[in-house]
Design a protein that fits this description.
single chain; about 250 residues; alpha/beta; six-stranded mixed beta sheet; four-stranded antiparallel beta sheet; binds adenosine-5'-diphosphate; binds magnesium ion
């Protein structure tokens, strides 16, 4: 999917010759701390930001030569941040479905179906301004999948949600994936990656420093006889690199 992707802002290299392969039909988590470059990478994949260099294909389409096809084959939450507060959840979904050229009846039934999948039946006919953060986030997600995109980007989907809303969101993400949608999400939370993802990639200092199933990552980085949580694996990976960098710097000086 991505080879040798470089992206800098001013003098700062955010993505530094990054390579990444994502299989279709799975939940893929890009894990990294705040400022690691997760949003930058998602924006590049979603054609919103251009890389300085590198080769990228998304859903089989070359990003540089065919950005329009790429854009048509994906969805990104936040893209429709304009859910209208004074409309109800149902009205919002019907309106967006109509904007996507669904006939009136089809728009209504798609909206009803999504309200059901995203557990918004009870709130369907309330105005969005009365929604909680979690409900709003689920509506956002519903809006993003109206057109059944094969690939969905979720940039820190549970950021700021309480544990209950976070769990509900995890459920709907799982449901989307079981419907065949490839989900590419970013997170700072190891637990989220562990619970939700089929494959996790760790982004650190502009590169992918580890990739695998949560179980593989745990197994690869555990001492014989000791099992580690993904949390510990992440710490080990990032600390090891910091230590070796500190050493290199020491040598140079
Ligand atoms: N448009 C921009 N202009 C300048 N710097 C940016 C811009 N977007 C991101 N950055 C910088 O790139 C780095 C990575 O940001 P970001 O991709 O948002 O990280 P993450 O999403 O992992 O928190 C940060 O240091 C951020 O300040
Ligand atoms: Mg971000």
């Amino acid at each position: 999917m991505a080879r040798g992707v470089v992206k800098g802002f001013g003098g700062q290299r955010v993505l530094d010759s990054l390579d990444l392969a994502v299989d279709q039909g799975a939940i893929f988590a890009l894990l990294g701390p705040n400022g690691a470059g997760k949003t930058t990478l998602v924006r590049i994949f979603a054609t919103l930001t251009r890389p300085d260099s590198g080769t990228i294909t998304v859903n089989g389409h070359d990003l540089a030569s065919d950005p329009v096809r790429v854009r048509r084959s994906i969805s990104l939450t936040g893209q429709y941040a304009a859910v209208d507060d004074v409309l109800t959840g149902r009205e919002n979904l019907v309106m967006m479905a109509r904007l996507l050229h669904l006939p009136r009846m089809a728009a209504k039934s798609r909206a009803a179906e999504l309200l059901d999948v995203f557990d918004l039946q009870d709130a369907a006919d309330k105005r969005v301004k009365e929604y909680s953060g979690g409900m709003r986030r689920r509506l956002d997600l519903a809006a993003a999948v109206i057109a059944r995109p094969p690939l969905l980007f979720l940039d820190e989907p549970t950021n700021g949600l309480d544990p209950r809303s976070r769990n509900q969101l995890w459920d709907v993400v799982r449901e989307l994936a079981s419907d065949g949608v490839t989900v590419f999400l970013t997170t700072q939370y190891l637990e989220e990656a562990d619970q939700l993802a089929d494959v996790v990639a760790v982004l650190h200092h502009g590169r992918i420093v580890a990739q695998g199933t949560p179980a593989q990552l745990k197994a690869n980085f555990s001492e014989p006889g000791a099992s580690r949580t993904l949390d510990e694996v992440f710490l080990a990976l990032t600390e090891a690199e910091e230590i070796s960098e500190a050493k290199t710097e020491g040598v140079i000086r």
